[in-house]
Amino acid sequence: MARLRTGGGDGILPCIGPQSAQSRPSGGVARITAASIIGADKATAGFLAAKKVHEELLLAGPLPVRLLRAAQFHEFVGQLLDWQQGDVVHLPALPTQLVACRTVAEELVDLAVAQEDPGPPIPEIAGPRKEIMADAARLLAARRGIPAGSLVICSIPAANRDPALIDDPETFDITRGTTGHVAFGHGPHHCLGAPLARMELRIALPALLRRFPDLALADPEEPLDFRVFSLVYGVRTLRVTW
């Protein structure tokens, strides 16, 4: 993997490609994968307009380019609060769909190493909830008032079923998507084993269904016994037949 730092200091670009060393440019870089901002293609002024020029220069260059446009990061809200001068914080009433920086990074890596070029249009990633950035900042500022040393326990099952996050949260829907879930934690507490767990599930579940194609609940009407006092949600037992 070759690395190239972008202009403006806003990211590291993974430059990955399957070509042989003989077919690569002299620097060994086969492809540029870069993150941009949703709306940059329509911008006429300000920082977004600069990102638009950045995109155009990359696409006009000698190397193949894959772009990913993202919404503003959750982490950006905290930075805006940290930049305050005095007792007043000036924040834009900007409609957004905040997304975790780590989520964007994982999607960017997947885009970089994908064998097939996704082609146009340029893919975009955003959080599942529409909100105003100033309102998100007010909520974060209130939570920062928790005294240091306080014990705070996050209920992951409750967070993943938040009606403000998804519609009809109690309905099992495999087409819903996963953006915004905290099953692997969040921020500095994000599970280091998350990529391994995803890889294991991608391998284990298809293998299980191939081995037992008639796998089903032993009694579909039987109530499931869920663990109650546990940080990791799940059933105690699950009787099946095959």
Protein model, in words:
It is a single chain. A hairpin with a 6-residue loop joins strand 1 (2-5) and strand 2. The protein has a domain at 153-242. The strands form four sheets. A three-stranded parallel β-sheet has the order 3-4-6, with helices on both faces. Strands 1-2 form a two-stranded antiparallel ribbon. A two-stranded antiparallel sheet has the order 5-7. By secondary structure, it is α/β, with parallel strands linked by helices. The chain has six helices and nine strands, in the order βββαβαβαββαααββ. The protein starts with a strand and ends with a strand. Helix 2 crosses helix 4 (133-143).
Keyphrases for this structure?
disordered N terminus; single chain; 242 residues; globular; three-stranded parallel sheet; two-stranded antiparallel ribbon
How would you summarize this macromolecular structure in one to three sentences?
The protein has helices spanning 46-59, 74-82, 101-113, 133-143, 156-160, 194-211; strands at 2-5, 12-15, 32-37, 65-70, 95-96, 124-125, 131-132, 216-217, 240-241. It is α/β, with parallel strands linked by helices and 242 residues long. Helix 2 (74-82) crosses helix 4.
What is the string of helix and strand elements?
A: EEEHEHEHEEHHHEE
pLDDT < 50 stretches: 1-24
Rg, please? 22 Å
User: Structural class, judged by helices and strands?
Assistant: alpha/beta
Distance between the termini: 45 Å
Helix content: 25-40%
Largest sheet: 3 strands, parallel
Average per-residue pLDDT, rounded, comes to: 79
Overall morphology: globular
Q: How many helical stretches?
A: 6
Strand content: 5-15%
The total beta strand count reads 9
Q: What spatial order of strands do you see in the largest sheet?
A: 3-4-6
